[in-house]
Amino acid sequence: MRDLAVRTLVRTSRRHTAHRPAPPAAAADHHGGIHLTVHTLPGADGATTPLALAQATTAAPTLVHRHVTSTATVLLALLTSPRHALGTDTHSVGALVRLMLGATPAQVAPALAPAGRTSDEHWIVVHGRHNPGRSTPPPPTGDDPAQLATLGTALGTPYLSIDGPGLRALIPSAPDTRPSAPAQAADLGWSLGFSAPAAAPDLPGADRQAERALQRAIAADAPAVVHSSDPLSLDAIVAPADAQELARTRFAPLDQAGSPGATVLLGTLRTWLNLHGSWDRAAAALGVHRNTVRHRLARIAELLDVDLRDPGVRMELWFALHWLPDDHRTHP
């Protein structure tokens, strides 16, 4: 058992980089009729000795055994990793106090970086949405400890928040890190959008990147999408101030909408366009009846004086939503 554990930890350490925790790994072997299984603990911060969970059984592990073992590795990671240890994350508490007393994100970011990192710390922003169409049950509302522990361990960060079907997270990274989606998140029914690595002062822009990546993941029904920069994109040739003014002007008539209000109408339009004009998928994503979606879009078409059946109109409105300033931005 010890030899199998050592070989597995060595194999895992070879996949470890200086900027990201080693991904979890597992190995199995047979010896004298005994089934040996080793699981490395995920979520290590690189400053502590790597650990593994080892099992020896006389019968081959069943599906139930594997699920129990997966849960055990998550709980052990919480108990053994300083970055995830319950009630001992003094760095996060100190950073929160400093933020509440007027510090900027750039000033507190070094306190949140894992041990041994350089001062050139970058962050990957993650946006997530639970897919109601998948077989897994919807996540509990609020900061459910089990949900936070599972997703935090899968993403390799303790810095995340779950609000109903929505998720946001910050992952410490190096400037040249390429984000990757953990399989556990997809198994739990989450679609994820990843930003490019960004320094603390640039986090607002990374937040917008993650949201746009998430919307592309939802539209494509993909587990995750990573933001990619294209210097020849429309954003590169339209001045930001002009784009925002266009968006404000385009949607100004919605301020006269009355109930349910411009915010709800914009969110409905964004979701419907993201899902390629599908009434049923938009209704499911918004948690309303498909006739409600139809009614809202009819009201939008009336107020904006447009024909939503026209692909050109849809394209124009999509870019206007993309350019909408942060103080008007809505999420489905």
Please describe what this structure looks like.
The protein has 332 residues and is α+β, with helices and mostly antiparallel strands. The protein folds into 3 domains: 2-80; 90-226; 234-328, PucR C-terminal helix-turn-helix domain (Arc Repressor Mutant, subunit A). Helix content is 44%, strand content 15%. The chain has helices spanning 2-14, 63-80, 90-100, 105-112, 145-155, 183-187, 203-220, 240-251, 262-274, 279-286, 290-304, 311-323, and strands at residues 26-31, 34-40, 52-57, 122-130, 159-163, 166-173, 190-194, 198-199, 224-226. A hairpin with a 2-residue loop joins β1 and β2. The longest helix is centred in the first third of the chain and has 18 residues, at 63-80. The termini are far apart. Mean pLDDT is 75; it is low at 16-21, 43-48 and 82-88.
Features of the shown structure:
332 residues; alpha+beta; Arc Repressor Mutant, subunit A; six-stranded mixed beta sheet; 9 strands; 44% helix; 15% strand; globular
Low-confidence stretches: 16-21, 43-48, 82-88
Number of domains: 3
Q: Biggest sheet, open or closed, and with what strands and sense?
A: 6 strands, mixed
> By helix and strand content, what is the structural category?
alpha+beta
Elements, N to C (H/E): HEEEHHHEHEEHEEHEHHHHH
Quote the average pLDDT.
75
Counting DSSP E segments of at least 2 residues, the number of strands comes to 9
Domain PucR C-terminal helix-turn-helix: 265-322
InterPro entries: CdaR-like_regulators, PucR_C-HTH_dom, PucR_C-HTH_sf
Pfam families: HTH_30
Protein name: PucR C-terminal helix-turn-helix domain-containing protein
